[in-house]
Specification:
By secondary structure, this protein is of the alpha/beta class. The chain is about 45% helix and about 15% strand.
Length: about 350
């Protein structure tokens, strides 16, 4: 079987690698994905976008890529789209127009529940099967036969969950993966460790970053121990300070108490607040709100991200409640998604 794959995000490819473990060896991927999984059209690094201006500069390239993907689909048995709604939704429309009978599976759906609910209609009209990783997501869809909650990929990818609270003397710092996030948070994190003495400070750095990039964007990190294994680092830590993103959900599931701290460009934050009508930023908090529960962790955004606020949260955080809620969150998500999505693809 040959599958056209569009997986343009680093996180999507982490999920795709886990998914492939459950697919037959004779399945071939074509399209856009990590080169570890086959022979993609382009290296993922050439597809990275940082902000609106960069997106506009690369617009012509992405139109050409979309057309190439549509042509490739001719010889493919099925299509698998992961996340990246800005590219994958227009691609799904083109594919449906040209191949009315082609099976199109969308895994890691656009967050239509957060904003742009008009995407729901597009997804239902263009896709054969919608694989949801959020239990509440199906509520906004009208064609219930198309959408299935398949579980959450992090429950496959995280190998160890805490069974009890630990005092390891290790504190994790995860300032994100984008330049703006890193450069905004690192000065605050460096000042913060001066106020939390006698600990080992672990700085988690994405594996893709080389020494030059680290030096240019993180500055002096001589007081930190570097780790490129986020799940292992979180499992061994007694506390964490984390930029918004998937890492906050990882910490919530593993059972490591943390404080969310996020500083975006002012324009990006304004646009986000204008269009995204959600009470929280952290995914675990969004899940708990859907369950009618109090937030799992604290959130400090923009000007609220100060050494004083982060230090106070660290000192007053109810670690026992967090640990209990971490178990509730794992039960809420039920199971991992990879095997279930593989079953849908094979069928």
């Amino acid at each position: 079987m040959k599958i056209l794959v569009s997986a343009m995000e680093t996180s999507s490819n982490v999920h795709l690698k886990e998914l492939k473990k459950y697919l037959p060896n004779d399945i071939e991927f074509v399209g856009v994905f990590d080169k570890e999984l086959g022979n993609p059209l382009y290296d993922l690094s050439s597809l990275a976008i940082m902000g609106i201006i960069d997106a506009l500069k690369k617009l012509r390239f992405f139109f050409r890529l979309r057309d190439e993907m549509v042509d490739l689909a001719k010889d493919c048995d099925k299509v698998l789209l992961l996340d990246s709604s800005g590219f994958n939704l227009p691609l799904a429309k083109k594919l449906r127009e040209k191949y009315p009978e082609k099976e199109i599976i969308y895994y890691i759906l656009p967050q239509a529940w957060a904003w742009k609910k008009g995407r729901v209609k597009v997804l239902e009209e263009t896709c054969t099967k919608l694989c949801s990783i959020l239990p509440f997501e199906k509520d906004i869809y009208t064609k219930k036969d198309k959408i299935t909650y398949v579980g959450h990929p992090l429950l496959d990818e995280i190998k160890e969950f805490k069974e009890k609270q630990i005092d390891s003397n290790k504190i994790i710092f995860m300032p994100g993966s984008r330049k703006t996030e890193i450069r905004n948070l690192m000065p605050i994190f460096k000042e913060l460790i001066e106020n939390i003495p006698n600990k080992e400070y672990i700085l988690v750095v994405p594996e893709k970053f080389d020494n030059k990039y680290i030096e240019e964007n993180y500055g002096d990190i001589s007081k930190f121990t570097i780790s490129k294994k986020s799940h292992q680092a979180l499992y061994e830590a007694e506390y964490a300070f984390i930029c918004s993103g998937t890492a906050t959900l990882e910490a919530s599931l593993i059972g490591t108490p943390f404080t969310l701290a996020y500083i975006a460009k002012k324009l990006d934050f304004f646009i986000g607040r204008t269009f995204v009508k959600l009470p929280y930023v952290g995914l675990a908090n969004i899940f708990f709100e859907k369950m009618g529960k109090k937030p799992l962790h604290s959130e400090f955004l923009q000007d609220e991200v100060t050494v004083e606020n982060l230090l106070n949260d660290y000192n007053t955080f109810n670690r026992s409640d967090f640990f209990d809620n971490s178990k509730i969150l794992r039960n809420y998500l039920i199971e991992g998604s990879s095997e279930n999505v593989a079953r849908i693809i094979k069928n």
